[in-house]
Amino acid sequence: MFLSVFDVFKIGVGPSSSHTMGPMSAANRFLDLLLSNEWPRPSSNVHVASIKVSLHGSLAHTGIGHGTGRAVILGLMGERPDQVDPDRMDIVIDEVERSGRIMPPGHPAYQFQPKTDLIFDKKVPLPGHANGMSFSAFDKDDRLLVKRIYYSVGGGFVVTDTELEQMRADKKKSAASGERIPFPFATAKQMLEMSERSGLSIAQMKRANEETRMSSDELDAGLDRIWAAMSSCIDRGLKVDGIMPGGLKVRRRARAIHDKLQEEWRSNRINPLLANDWLSVYAMAVNEENAAGGRVVTAPTNGAAGVIPATIRYYQHFHEDWDQDGIRNYLLTAAAVGGIIKHNASISGAEVGCQGEVGSAAAMAAAGLAAVMGASPEQIENAAEIALEHHLGMTCDPVAGLVQVPCIERNALGAVKAVTAASLAIKGDGQHFVPLDACIETMRQTGYDMSEKYKETSTGGLAVNVVEC
Ligand code: SF4
Question: Which residues contact 289 (CB under 8 A, 6 or more apart)?
Fold first, then answer.
């Protein structure tokens, strides 16, 4: 099992990794397929003339609030999550709606009328996963030429139906078999054993694994890019005011809170909740940017994107000895824990509820922070466990299918819990009652038992009990 730090932390756009970035990437993959030889053409003069897309399950239920349709259109126009310019997205979509055509670079124009060719099918879920999509291409006589099913499995990852089956089969195989990395840990127990045997920290083992694919300098440059994108997301979120899109009329709060905190900081007034307030405002800044469709880094998802940046900025703000190496070690440690959670349970709200998103983010943040505060591997594992344990059972019930309520505040609270978990773990000796692996397995089982209403469908919880104005 190997999940790169750059698979966990991906630069993209809001508001959702599974409902925005995943569908955009699926559309990119379908375009690549059309140009490839991976499907049989009836004859050389048969060409793709039109495209149709249908969205299923959670993508159909909450896709409008999450901007899934917009993401599909942008993806079909050749825009990629890490490169698309958030300020140009409306222009591209208007152009497709006006012309009824998709014109991706390197392709001929295809007929695509969003109103009729992009279907939100709430009745028929696809069998493999809650976030299913079907892309079909037709010739000029409307004969089906090629069809692919993709699943957005959380954190922006997209797989075909065959790849999903393969992934599930691979999970059942021995974790250590066939790996070409020096530290192929698939569980927290294995991670601690390998650390003990090698004498290396979790971050050092993760680094050694990553360096089988790239040089040390490339790895550092990539990690620095990730933090720079997270950091500028916080800064943008602290500057912008106003109402977030989607119709709920939720006002951004990060800027006003930040102004108050700065004023308090300057006046030297004693605030017993100082660290909590700063953590919260950093997390909210990121998630308000995410809700507005801005540039965000999955950590491990968009909905939970605020927890990790908030705790890194907290580390810079409140720990005088912070440095760039510390941030790199934080990200590597957090990614190691995120990989274990994804491998053994899930980081997707549509699969296991919000415990898998904000709960995983808090566990990763607690581990990263504990690492840079000098914790032992056992204390780091303990920190991740404490943070995850106290998110178990948390449902996903976004009001109006928008990643705003409860998501924005939830990230603030996730960041506060992560710091508390790291602090508690460091005050112990690493020995503790509930192993992280048991906690992850509990999350998986709880998510499996959770009603579909609470898994990113907006058909239960706050989503049905809050009256929209
Ligand atoms: S409630 Fe949690 S899992 Fe659901 S959309 Fe919001 S942040 Fe994501």
Answer: 14, 233, 236, 237, 240, 295, 296
Cβ 396 under 6 angstroms from ligand 1: yes
- CA 223 remoteness from chain centre: 17
Scored b (16 or more CB within 10 A) or e, 79-93 reads bebeebeeeebeebb
Ligand 1 proximity of 305 Cβ (cutoff 6 Å): no
Instruction: Provide the CATH number for the domain around residue 59.
Output: 3.30.1330.90
Name the pLDDT band for 173 (thresholds 50, 70, 90): low
Strand 144-154 to strand 131-138: parallel, antiparallel, or no bridges (unpaired)? antiparallel
Nearest CA to ligand 1 atom 2: 354
> Where does a domain end: 110, 133, 168?
168
Closest C-alpha to 68, from 56, 84, 86, 83: 56
For residues 392 and 355, the answer to whether their CB atoms sit within 8 Å is yes
- Residue with CA nearest ligand 1 atom 1: 396
**Cβ proximity of 244 and 67 under 8 Å:** no
As a whole number, mean pLDDT of residues 309-334 equals 97
Amino acid at 358: V
Tell me the residue range of the domain where 239 lies: 188-465
Which tokens in the block code for residue 407? 């998501």
Give yes or no for residue 398 CB within 6 A of ligand 1: yes
Per the structure, the count of domains in the chain is 2
Dist. CA 437 → ligand 1 center (Å): 23
Q: Are residues 226 and 152 in the same domain?
A: no
Instruction: Decide: 286 in ligand 1 pocket, CB within 6 A.
Output: no
| Those residues with Cβ within 8 angstroms of residue 232's Cβ, 6 or more apart along the chain or in another chain | 295
What digits encode the pLDDT tens for the residues 204-254?
999 999 999 999 999 999 999 999 999 999 999 999 999 999 999 999 999
pLDDT in tens, 327-375: 999 999 999 999 999 999 999 999 999 999 999 999 999 999 999 999 9
Which domain CATH number covers 392? 1.10.4100
Query: From atom 4 of ligand 1, which residue's Cα is the shortest distance away?
Result: 396
Long-range contacts of 329-332 (CB under 8 A, 24+ apart): 329/201, 329/203, 329/368, 329/371, 329/372, 330/203, 330/368, 330/369, 330/371, 330/372, 331/5, 331/9, 331/223, 331/226, 331/227, 331/368, 332/5, 332/202, 332/203, 332/206, 332/207, 332/210, 332/223
Distance between Cα 454 and ligand 1 center (Å)? 10
Looking at the domain assignment, is residue 10 inside a domain?
no
Among protein residues, the one with the nearest Cα to ligand 1's atom 6 is 407
